[in-house]
Fold this protein.
Amino acid sequence: MSQLKQETSSVDRKLFLKDIVDELLADGRIDNKQAEQFLIPARSSTLEIHPLVVIAQQEWKDKKPPNKILTLEALTLWLADKVGIPYLRIDPLKVDVTSITSVISSAYASRHKILPIKVTHDTVTIATAEPYVRSWENELRHVTNLNIERVIANPVDIPRYLNEFYSVSHSIKRATNENEGQHIPGVVNIEQLVELGKSGRLDTNDESVVHIVDWLLQYAFEQRASDIHMEPRREMGNIRFRIDGALHLVYEMPTPVMAVVTSRIKVLGRMDVVEKRRPQDGRIKTKTPNGQEIELRLSTMPTAFGEKLVMRIFNPDVLVKDFPALGFGEKDIAEWNNMVSVPHGIVLVTGPTGSGKTTTLYSTLRQLAKPEVNVCTVEDPIEMVMPEFNQMQVQQNIGLDFASGIRTLMRQDPDIIMVGEIRDRETANMAIQAALTGHLVLSTLHTNDVAGAIPRLREIGVPAYLINATLIGVLAQRLVRTLCPHCKQPTELDPDIWKKITRPWKINGKHSFYAPVGCDECRHTGFMGRAGIYELMPMTTELRHNIKPDSDASSIRKQAVKEGMTQLRISGARKIAMGQTTIEEVMKVVPPDEEL
């Protein structure tokens, strides 16, 4: 009989290495040679390590198809199936830390190596990696008056999240108690406490506050968040992460504590801590657990219940990618490189906020920034400090706007100038002058597509003849979520819908349509990461003939399509056909009834 099936409810029995190895051998997951390695009695050093962890360290290949590596996650899933207990991969984004840490103490959970995961009105779900250690069940049922539901979880995740959840909960409770324990009328934020100047009162350097901020940042890095939102409400404030373009509620924190945490972050960002009535901007440079430098851009906004703080995370590895990683096709890369290799003129990148324009420009500038080339930028704000080029920050309070910034850069002997955004006539005119005097100018413009860039420039006040003389080309882009490679499944697509989104073109090659499923790797969203879809319009002789004072975007678009321009939705359709995204994702950002 299987050793793992011989469960005894009265006596605790831990899993032993030999039992696990024997079961893996009996199931045909490993061979005799691998099993013999664990018959040697010299394994006393592994007694305190969970046997699944020891086996996972060997990185054996599963003898059963598809012959993948027996990772710790795969072994944990195998164990759960073997003992007949549901498997759960702990997703910290879905754990209500406040409720689960109130069920049992940290000491009790540590002693029994268990972790509460979910609490309802009559049941608590407990994660364990020891299915036959059950003495804690009756004790917990008696103390809490709740039903116990056990799940099997990764033996490494349990102590990791146990420490994380209880540590953060303790820090927040301590901060709350210290903040509320002063019994001072009207005192609900750190500035008032600091002004009182009394020792022992909560301030931004308090250990609890420092720990909460450190946890928040490291947690965001681990979850691949692009933004952290701290939103005060009447009693409990919300902390939300934006991951792959979607916001996720991560934690609820007492509003007075959130005010102190916000103040701590403002101190780190060299912002005015006392000023809460007006918006402020700041910047923090920090490191991930593996030592990688990360920059965060801070922005505060006064709301009805306090300051709302948004931290945008700029990871150099994410922000500055090569063009294939951004989603460019081979044709796109060739056309884009041709456009930015022209010695003088203007190249525009268009699209709404959050469509990846800055990422494209930074990746391009890093490619262009050679030792013999002087690359300068004027930005508002500087998204990412890059050592390869010279960056200047717009400061409206001292009269340094985009136009005056370009004027300054013109005296700095630049070869390439990047302007954060062309917003007004003065900035547009200065960019035109820079292009006319022999500089390559890259900038962004808020229009929906490439053809709309030309009427927009005319609306700003740029004459048609100057657009004709300086514009090299326009790139429009959007971001779509990409399917999780671990769980996406083939699917059929309605031919009528496919024709609607691809008309009047035909997508050549093999079509592989996939649908999102959801798994632990993608947090059950079915998507992991984002990629760009693009349309490029290099200025040709025929297109320049269409740039007239009375020409509209429709005539320019028709001419560009006639010359072979790949539209945004056709670019998206190609990614659908390659199995990278879904038709719903493309239709979110590019309507299928877009005029041709």
Remarks:
- The chain has 24 helices and 18 strands.
